[in-house]
Amino acid sequence: MVEAVMLWNEPNNKSHWDNALDPEWRQFGEMVNLAARAIAAENDTVLRVLGGMSPIDAGWIKRMEEFGVLETLDAVAVHGFPLDWNNWMLDEWPNWLREIQAVTDLPVWVSEVGISTFGAEEVQEFGLRRTAELLIGRAPRIHWYSLYDLPAAWPATTRHKEAEGSSYYRHFHMGLLREDGTPKKALQHFSEFTPELGICQWFHFEDHRLDDAVRWLRELGVKHLRTGLSWADSFRPNADAWFDRQMAALEEFDVTITYCFTPEHRGIAPHHTSPPLVNEEYAEFCARMTRRYVPQRSVATST
Question: Nearest Cα to 92, choosing from 136, 134, 140?
């Protein structure tokens, strides 16, 4: 069942929102306000969550408050990867949560946290345990990123691709499972931390891993799952059929759906990070997906 919808992904990161086209995030704020109200018109009980910020930035949250965004939402979210990309130490997690909690009364979710096996599997094994110790009990939702490694043939969503060096290639080693579905060392420990620890797993269009992923999630005792429905993918042939299959397969979990990615032909610039030409079109997509997958009667009420 769907427990929450999330509006965009890492909106303060240029890899996901081109702030050169929206330098004050004013259009983003207007877009989210429209979408949040459109979702509420379809289902006024489903949780509406601001896309997880990366980097964690209290000033950015204050800006969203100035634009009235927080008034339309039920939670905000953060992403953190201190052993791979952030310029802070793993043990600083509680401090970063407190920094955001100090500027909003909304619950603060951790909608992506993870550690790569780029250098060694033992790093992820240690990091999983320590992350669980630091975050469980401090955030109402924690989604570990991710179940699977990103396949080498698929591009990672970053600004400069291979020019980023090891920072880019770490994206392909974030899973508890390798690309071929075989387990890494940390996987054997994950069930020790469920259901408090959930999973964030992005499924690409017609992703061949979907059924195997469900089996692994079930085996690991995962209750809370974050994934996405792509506005850009909604223009592909048979998009609704794929969305239907994905959402039906995930029905047994408490799902947070992320609505994101601008269709190239509907952006100010032809890129998935672009602000849309028409904010209302994103809101209409959010409303349609909510109507289709989150009918009023089916919202999960568990905590």
Answer: 134
DSSP label at 183? B
Q: DSSP 3-state assignment of 118?
A: coil
Instruction: Give me the mean pLDDT over the 131-137 stretch.
Output: 98
Distance from C-alpha of 203 to C-alpha of 180, rounded to nearest angstrom: 15
Contact by Cβ (8 Å): 43, 290 = yes
Alpha-helical regions (H) of 102-149: 121-135
Query: pLDDT tens digit string along 254-288?
Result: 999 999 999 999 999 999 999 999 999 999 999 99
Could you give the CA distance from residue 241 to residue 21 in angstroms, rounded to a whole number?
A: 33
**pLDDT mean over 163-178:** 87
Topology of the domain covering 2-265 = TIM Barrel (3.20.20)
Contacts of the segment 242-251: beta carbons below 8 A, 24+ positions apart: 242/205, 242/206, 243/289, 243/292, 243/293, 244/292, 245/210, 246/203, 246/207, 246/210, 247/2, 247/293, 249/210, 249/211, 249/214, 250/214, 250/225, 251/1
Read off the tokens for 148: 């699977």
- Exposure on the CB side of residue 92, measured as CA atoms within 13 A: 11
User: Which helix (H) or strand (E) covers residue 227, if one does?
Assistant: strand 224-230
- The neighbour count for residue 284, using CB atoms within 10 Å, is 15
pTM: 0.95
Q: Are the C-beta atoms of 21 and 64 separated by less than 8 Å?
A: no
- CA 46 from centre of chain: 17
User: What distance in Å separates the CA atoms of residue 62 and residue 289, rounded to the nearest whole number?
Assistant: 29
Got the DSSP string for 197-226?
Answer: EEEE----TT-TTHHHHHHHHHHHT--EEE
